[in-house]
Amino acid sequence: MPAGHVYVRHLEPLPDDADGAVRRLADPPARGTTTPAGASWWPPAMLDAAWVEAHGATIDVLHVHFGFDALEPAELQQVVDALRRHGVPLVYTVHDLRNPHHVDRTAHDAQLDVLVPAADALVTLTPGAAEEIRRRWGREAVVVPHPHVVPFETMRKVRSMREVGRRAHGGRPFRVGLHLKSLRASMAAERVVATLVDTVAPLPDAVLQVDVHRDVLEPTFVRHDASLTRLLRTHADAGRIDLRVHDYFSDDDLFDYLASLDVSVLPYRFGTHSGWLEACRDLGTTVVAPSCGYYAQQGPVRTYVHDEDHYVATSLTDAVRSAWADRRDLGTTVEQRRRQRREVAAAHERIYRGVTA
């Protein structure tokens, strides 16, 4: 769970390969809501001891991915205890070893201290994350790479358009994108903006596009950041950035946005893995990723030095300049993703068979 998340959906075999060996249940109505089953998964109904008590006899495995941010460790322990009473194995995919939404890591660490030791099987996305799990809890995690995010047909369309553009030898500016979303706790926006402005300005035919959600710039919203707003408005008025202010993208809008970029810069000072990075790889957009977490182990990226204790502005400049000068496609292809999807589906079936044996 949640079955509706794109990551979980893409653990399924390809339609022409499906044999019905694994059946993932649709998300029940979100806890405390009357939304139809499958329409919304937050907060997840299945991460509740009462739900497990009521449905434990009907499920073979509970596989947790996301959605436990708001739960106390004691509540998670109650879920674990209910699973044990019903003989239901717990599989946990460790996506985040450091929660990107939490300034303080204490709460997430306490949640991991329940889930990681209790899981009958652990999965994670990179060897570095597996090594950290081994070091912190003495547990072995199966490393299964992140599947594609973008639908195959969209990947084909975008990659075909990029190839046409390459044969036409340009004709549009080299676009460096920084999306600040609604300012996650993990983002160090101002210093990254300042470096990128100085980096992109001297590059011929290069444009720095900064996207941000409306709730950051409008004073009436709780996420409003006055200092960042002044910085962005100043640079936009001076023509140093192409500032785009909008609400959340739909999936299609997000893919169109990422496909319009040559480079996407991740402004994180902590984190673990990134689905955004994988979507960029699907579309052929180069990712400039920080040195924190295990982003560089997900696939080829340009790395710069950035974590909770260090920020080296020149390394970000070097990474962007290198991407501008080189312009290699660091992404993946439809056929590579199709092969990977088959491997990912098979790996999960093996894990489920192992814990239910």
Question: How would you characterize this protein structure?
Answer:
The protein is an alpha/beta fold. It folds into two domains: 6-148 and 338-356, Rossmann fold; 152-326, 3-Layer(aba) Sandwich (Rossmann fold), CATH 3.40.50. 41% of the residues lie in helices and 13% in strands. It has helices at residues 6-9, 49-55, 73-85, 106-118, 127-137, 152-167, 189-200, 214-217, 226-237, 251-259, 275-283, 313-326, 334-356; strands at residues 62-64, 90-94, 121-124, 141-143, 174-179, 206-213, 242-246, 263-265, 286-290, 302-304. The strands form two sheets. Strands 7-6-5-8-9-10 form a six-stranded parallel beta sheet, with helices on both faces. Strands 1-2-3-4 form a four-stranded parallel beta sheet, with helices on both faces. Helix 3 (73-85) packs parallel to helix 4 (106-118).
Overview features:
357 residues; globular; alpha/beta; six-stranded parallel sheet; single chain; Rossmann fold; four-stranded parallel sheet
Radius of gyration: 21 Å
**Overall morphology:** globular
- The overall number of domains is 2
CATH topology of the largest domain: Rossmann fold
Calculate the mean pLDDT score and round it.
Answer: 92
Distance between the termini: 21 Å
Summarize the structure.
This protein has 357 residues and is an alpha/beta fold. It is 41% helix and 13% strand.
